[in-house]
Each structure stands twice: as structure tokens, then as C-alpha cells.
Amino acid sequence: MATRKLAGAALHSQQTKTSPAPPAPKGNQRGRKHGLRSEQALAPKRQEHVKALRADYPDLDDRRLALLADRLARIDLATAWLDAQKGIVRDRNGEVYAVVTYVEKWVSRAEAVLAEVERERHAPKRFDLAKSMSALEEHG
Predict the structure, then answer these.
(1) Into how many domains does the chain fold?
(2) Is 77 within the bounds of a domain?
(3) d(Cα 110, Cα 100) in Å, to the nearest integer?
(4) Selection from 135, 88, 82 nearest residue 107 by Cα
(5) Does residue 10 sit within a domain?
(6) Which of 76, 100, 105 is nearest to 88 (CA)?
(7) Which of 15, 25, 89, 133 has the fewest Cβ atoms nearer than 10 Å?
């Protein structure tokens, strides 16, 4: 049986099948696209949003703060990636990348949460009659 001499793409294909590249080391950007699953990319963005949200909404509960900061960080990374693309963001089959749909959903939800927080901020403070009565009894 004669051995075939491989060249070009066939050689590259054979080489990657027989000796695939080692896995990328932690923090490597080789496989990164938009960074939406990269804790290394998300963490600093999340922290920026935590600081800004804490400054703007000091009474925001920790759970909504964490969720909103994460959502805003993902929006930042996704929109930056989309902005860097040249032309339409579709795959080979003509399907719009899923990240476009995610961004639309995330923005909509973030806007809803922020509107809810704003309503809470401007809502009249609830008067606690029991607390007021107890304060009167202590002074009277």
C-alpha cells in the first residue's frame, strides 16, 4: 500500500486529527468570541456595575443588585462584540447569532428591573402605625 503525500488543508487536517492542539491555558483568548461565558471578562464589568448601582440605588437589595450587575455586564460584553462585527451578524445558514436575541431580552429585563427600582424609590414611604404608637408610648 502506497503512502499518500499530504499537502495543504489535507495535511493540516491529518495533523490535527493525530495530534490535536493542547487545551488553551486558563485566561487564553483563543476561543473567546463575545466573552459572555468568560468569568475573566465578566467579573470586572460586573464590579463596575455593582459600584454604579450601589451609588445610584443605595437601598437596592443585594439579590437584585447582583442580578442586575450581571445582566448589565453581559449586555456590555455582547454589545461591544456586536459593534466590532463587520456587517450582518448571521451564521453560514443565514441565522442571526443567538447573542442578538440574548441582548434584546437582557436589555428589556434590565430596563424593567430599573423601572421597578425607580418606582420603589419614588413611592411614598409606608407609614408604620404600630411603630409610631410605640414611640409615642415611650415618650408619654
Answers:
(1) 1
(2) yes
(3) 15
(4) 82
(5) no
(6) 100
(7) 25
Do the beta carbons of residue 24 and residue 31 sit within 8 Å? yes
Residue 5 placed within a domain: no
The model scores a pTM over 0.90: no
Q: Return the sign of the alpha-carbon dihedral for residues 104, 105, 109, 112.
A: positive
Write out the chain's pLDDT in tens, 140 residues: 555 665 665 555 555 556 555 655 554 444 445 567 788 889 999 999 999 999 999 999 999 999 999 999 999 999 998 888 877 777 788 888 888 899 999 999 999 999 999 998 888 877 667 777 777 766 65
Single-letter amino acid code for the residue at 50:
V
> At residue 19, what are phi and psi to the nearest 5 degrees?
-140, 80
List the domain range (segments joined by +) for residue 109.
34-122
d(CA 28, CA 77): 17
Length of the chain counted residue by residue? 140
